[in-house]
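Quick question, first post here. What does this chain look like in 3D?
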Amino acid sequence: MTTATDSQAQLRSRLDNSILGVALVALALTAVVAVVWLLWLEAAPPLSLSFEHYFPAVNGASLSYRQINPDGSVTYLSRNVSRDRANTQSGSLPLNVFTALMKTAGLNLEQMEAAELLDQLSAMQLVRLNDVESDPQGNPVNRTTTYALLVNQGIQQFGVNDIGIAPPIPLLPLGDTPQTIQGKLNDAIPFRMTQQIESRGAYRTAIGEFPDCIRVKSELVLNENTTTNLTWYCAGIGQVADEMTDTNGTRRTEIVAASVDKLILGNTPIAGDRNLNASIQRVFDEPLPGMAIRLFDYQEATASLGITTNILPVEGNLLYGTASGAIVLLDRAANQGLWRFQSGDAVFSTPVVANGLVFFGSTDKKIYALRLQDGAFVWSYPTRDVVSASPAVYGDTVYVASEDRHLYALDADTGRLRWSFSTGGVFVAPPVIADDTLFVSNDDGGLFALDPTTGRVRWEFSAGRAVTAPVTPHDGVLYFGSFDNTVFALDQTNGHMLWSRDVGDSVKQPVIAANGRVYVTLDQEVFALDAATGDPLWYYDNVRPLLGAPVLLGNQLWLAGTGNLISLDANTGALTYEVPTTESTAESGVSSDGRELYLGYFDGALYGFARANP
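> Answer (accepted):
Ran it through. Tokens below.
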């Protein structure tokens, strides 16, 4: 039988042997030092001017810090903020943190029906701050998730990792007078924290000087150990520096990169496995052997996290974007998330991995670079409109097509602009690189072949109406469809039209070119055209809508239908197989690693398919 004394001893042991032995032995380290990037809805009760002034972060705020430890070693801290209504996140909280949330929200589980509880939580905003600490080689050292609630009294921190804090700790003192709060961690370990604003003025950092800053002193007493933090917060950016002193000495932290709303400065030093590369492939030599079955299911936590991009296979894991603005790396074997990064708005840009970095665009008008190993923030670059197209990477340059009518060529390591190219039409199709040429199209029907180093136009072609899917280079020919119901074949070197074919409807998906055929997917129909002449070879009518783009495995053409996954004989167009799925819709269709098939849906479901007897 476990006694209360035993439980307290076990908790003390866990605190002393976890990252909280440092970060919660110094609750202020990630409480006042780390949990400063907190957000609130416009509908929430107004907070004090100091919070609005010194915590200007928005959903998706991302920051990086360089930390010099007491022993002289250097680590880096990547910080990413997500927020949502408390009812959508409460079910995924650790038990102790959920209990602390209820106390912070003033809710009594025993006296409330489930519907009433969820209704009360829906009026509150819950904030998660995800920190990844890594060494200079990019190896993760610690992960910390901090939880806070926005209530009438301000911003209240109620948990770190699986440890609940009661009563919650308010972030930032309200004035220059010391304020003290006493409570317990997991209702067992007592703590006391005192904080006050010590000074106001300018502060210079590695990414610039900020004129309006405050210095906060906080002191935490936990398990008879005292930790002191001196933390600088600046208007328009938040925490910029910290000095934490405990029995081990002093650790100094200073900001090196920030992406906070329209403020974007600096970048994180690159480290990690630079040999990792992955992008969506649509043609594989070998067919899927045997009868396909649904091999695994995964469900995002809430409908607001519906999957909105292709599923990208990466080294045995799966990478995708969501309607809530998150990029998620899923452990395929364990069927659980490895990391999640929050951008400021929905992601429709299927991510690309190059040299160990993940690149994607967001409807928050930014392009992001993350480290694949742990999802750590590296840099972001602002455009003037939505970035819905997947980026392209060539050498050390990443190419980004924005709906602000510009194509940006950025340094892949730093995010610095190298050149830009603009047209009269909006860019919504991903740029494509083949044979040292960059191809990009717009919604005016323009197709441009550019020098990838300078952005100089080599040739251009007009399709008449929008070209919204990426072009398909194959054997020196460029194949693509447009909204004028036509599929085109152009000479890749000079843009001369080799043939065109009217297919009777807008072509919204990328075409597939292989084995002398061009496969064209319409809303409910599939065509195979002769790659040399454009003559029709076969036609398939699916009756119900098709979802997104297909993939070709050997002689199998796989497509996502409404309610099923279907396989056509690529030689004849005959339906050869179908597997039930869901009535939900999918944005980008089926994807594959050549061994399995993957589908992500707007209801948050992710399905994997493979042969019955692998």
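Confidence is low (pLDDT under 50) at residues 1-49.
Residues 510 and 603 are 24 Å apart (CA to CA).
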